[in-house]
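Give me structure tokens for this 227-residue protein.
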Amino acid sequence: MGKQHQPSVFGAIFIALSVLAQTPAADAAPKSGRQAYSSSNMGCLVGNDFYAVHFTAIQEGVQKGETTAFAKYCQEVPAVGKTYLSIDLLDRDTRKTPIALKVVEEEFNEDDGRPPKEIRVLNQTPAKLYSNGVADIPASITQPGHYALIATVGEEAVSEDDRLRIPFTVAIEGTAKVNWLGKITGAIVLMFFGVMVFIGFRTYRAYRPKRQAALDLPAVGAKAEAG
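Here you go.
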């Protein structure tokens, strides 16, 4: 009997944000061929209908404003070399499920509309548990191109829903796009908290006069009796 898939909360949120993010993106000014990493936004969020992760590519080198000997990127890595690929497992259920990782080079063509074709495997790990919520794998990337980290959830993939493909580019200039997903996510979060604050304020305003009037009734009655 196959596994019964049910979209996770993170998966559902990711689907909604992905639909909103289908607005055509204008080209942004190239940032030395990389999409800068920021832990304060959700620009590195990647997922499918059932799983969502936060992706990070790490290389040796000091980035501006940081003191560590490693620089972090999202899906646009600026240079070839030893690269550590890491995913934060946002769904807690995946931390109790074995996950296999594989890094592949892909043949990619945006014009023909066909799915990317795997050229070669750079590195792979057998399925194992990542109870701390972080799965990582190193890869020695020697030439510019299109690559992907493929995470297979479960001992073996029953369907494509069990495979999460995370594409990224290495040493390709001019691929940066406006990060609409990150911007829309931030706006939705701000709107949500704004609405909650407004509702709370209105509820407080509606409740406070009634409570105050109820407290004043005994005092008014006492004055009437005294008179």
